[in-house]
Amino acid sequence: MAVSGALSRRTHVRRKAPRAFLRRLFRRQKPQLRLETGGDLLVHLNCLLFVHRLAEESRMNAFENKDGVIKKEHVQAAAKVILKKSRG
Amino acid sequence: MADTYNSDGEPTTRTLLRRVLDTADTRTPRRRRSARVGVQKARLEMPLSSPTKMNVSRRSQRARSIDRLARVQTSGHLDEQTPRTLLKNILLTAPESSIMMPESVVKPVPTPQVVQSSRRKSSQGSLELQLPELEPPTTLALGLLAPGRRKQRLRLSAFQQGVDQALPLSQEPHGNANASSLTSSLNLTFATPLQPQSVQRPGLARRPPTHRAVDVGAFLQDLRDTSLVSPGDSLRTPVATVPMDTVLEDTQPFSQPLVGRSPSVYHSLPCLSHTEAEDAERAVSHRTQSSGPKLQNYNPGKQAQLLARKAKNIDALAMSFPNKSSAISGEDGVDLLQDGIDEEAEERMEENLSVSKVMDTTGTQGSIRTENSKGYREMTEAVETNEPKGSSEDEDISDRRASPELASNTTQFPQARRPQFLEPAPPSSTAVLSSEPLSTRLPPRARAPGSRPRQDPHKTGLSHYVKFFSFCAKMPMDKKAVETVEKCLDRYFQHLCDDLEAFAAHAGRKTVRPEDLELLMRRQGLVNDQVSLHVLVERHLPLEYRQLLIPCAFSGNSVFPAQ
């Protein structure tokens, strides 16, 4: 019954999360910890939101410098701010 | 011609006969016979020519309707012994369904000769035409009276025999036009073997695709010819044979026709490759001549080793590349070098040497020399700076990034370009090279294959988020900006793992649960009282993941995922 809601094999997820990659990362970093099934999806969500914020901030920095291209300095400045925010 | 006629009347033999019976005048059979025969000739010849082109269903419908009409009319003529009455009797007695069956089409085929003979007779007499005309319907009726299933297979085989017999006969003109058209039309409907077509038109026969063995010489020639066309594409070719597990995403389509090479390695690099390729070219122009002859001395053995070396080669090249680019733009180079560690520099040096062997045999010596000189420079400078930072990841990342460009360089600088590279590098580098070859050759072999898979999947996974970044930014980005983004992502992942560990430990668990993730997002400020986690999940994740994460009630008093 509940399986009907779960992913069937044939469905193609359009925006796939790199679940194996995330799990491997986590295992590399913290081999003593274990990650649950739904956990890596939430990690993916977290990453998406982080990248989203980073991109927004970099874009704003580039606009402020009246640059049409995002440069390394913009990204670095944005990263400083956003990483500080997502420290938790 | 036949189609237009048929579309009007849907003539089977039966229906046409009926029509003839209905329309023809009954009063003067003798006088009208010629006319009737003429009409019948024309009409009967047509349907036989294309019974197969008609749909069975249409035929059946029309036949049924015409049959019913005809029965009413023909009942009055039974007393006369005219061909008309004979026809009617036959039509009445034969079961109606017989004509509807598609096998009815088959029946005329086994008797094409009979029909032909009838055709010949028709030229002679008037009445005679009608009787042979009756034969096909009679045979049809008789054949189909029997149970159908057993006959179907027989009919098919008989049909094919008939087709084969009819084929040579179908060549005969005119008098056999009907039979030939019948058989040929039947040929069209049934699946004909490929052989006849090819026999008739040899040009249309399908040839099996020819698989040519890979010609290495031609391949290298192609590389030389199209060296600078697309560095991104060419980088696939030399590494094509390297057995790589990961299929890295690649956005650039193939522009070069590869000779049977299946590109197994795709490096998901953004435009990094192009600028770094330019850097590499510039770097290559300052090559060491002395390193060249030294490298030529090395001759490793087998292709498999070569390919393994290639993998390491790309590694080593990748390492040396950022240093090379730094040589051109000094400040960045210093930064990169400061990130380096001595051990890593040595390892790279060894890898460079092993790689140099490989590159030798493959004929891409220029790039080898570049990497050698680069590796040496990196070593020396790393020793000088002597600041081991924990940011080995950054270097690895830059290595990985540079690796595809190095591969592209290897292809771009084939043997033909060797003379360009014979420029003196710092002589000390060659001295170092010459002194260290044997000692450093063996150890990298054990280490290098392990390091390569560690980095590339990492890059591949990160590229997913880098692409998402460039999508969100909606602006063009620098290559260095992309590198910075990757560095940021790495640092972010580290922070993430640390936080999750802290949260799990705080809860006394060794497993990270989704509650820990929610707590993390709450602390980050993404989730607050106004915005819940479920809202974020619904916004950003595709439906399939949402179903896995958010508990939803299903029928039968069940909730998935279970709470």
TrEMBL record, chain A:
It holds the Pfam family CENP-W. SUPFAM superfamilies: Histone-fold. The keyword rRNA-binding does not apply. The keyword Transcription does not apply. One of its GO terms (molecular function) is DNA binding. One of its GO terms (biological process) is cell division. Belongs to the CENP-W/WIP1 family. This is Centromere protein W. It comes from Nyctereutes procyonoides (Raccoon dog).
TrEMBL record, chain B:
Its main location: nucleus. The keyword Membrane does not apply. Component of the CENPA-NAC (nucleosome-associated) complex, a complex that plays a central role in assembly of kinetochore proteins, mitotic progression and chromosome segregation. The CENPA-NAC complex recruits the CENPA-CAD (nucleosome distal) complex and may be involved in incorporation of newly synthesized CENPA into centromeres. Part of a nucleosome-associated complex that binds specifically to histone H3-containing nucleosomes at the centromere, as opposed to nucleosomes containing CENPA. Coiled coil: none annotated. It is found in: Chromosome, Centromere, Kinetochore; Nucleus. GO terms for biological process: cell division; chromosome segregation; kinetochore assembly; mitotic cell cycle. GO terms for cellular component: kinetochore; nucleus. This is Centromere protein T. Residues 1-420 form the Centromere kinetochore component CENP-T N-terminal domain. Keywords: Cell cycle, Cell division, Centromere, Chromosome, DNA-binding, Kinetochore, Mitosis, Nucleus, Phosphoprotein. Component of the CENPA-CAD complex, composed of CENPI, CENPK, CENPL, CENPO, CENPP, CENPQ, CENPR and CENPS. The CENPA-CAD complex is probably recruited on centromeres by the CENPA-NAC complex, at least composed of CENPA, CENPC, CENPH, CENPM, CENPN, CENPT and CENPU. Identified in a centromeric complex containing histones H2A, H2B, H3 and H4, and at least CENPA, CENPB, CENPC, CENPT, CENPN, HJURP, SUPT16H, SSRP1 and RSF1. Interacts (via N-terminus) with the NDC80 complex. Residues 441-452 have a biased composition (Low complexity). Residues 371-403 have a biased composition (Basic and acidic residues). Residues 110-133, 277-300, 345-459 are annotated as: Disordered. Pfam families: CENP-T_C, CENP-T_N. Residues 459-553 form the CENP-T/Histone H4 histone fold domain. It comes from Nyctereutes procyonoides. One of its GO terms (molecular function) is DNA binding. Belongs to the CENP-T/CNN1 family. The keyword Cytoplasm does not apply. InterPro entries: CENP-T, CENP-T/H4_C, CENP-T_N, Histone-fold. CDD domains: HFD_CENP-T. Residues 286-300, 353-370, 428-438 have a biased composition (Polar residues).
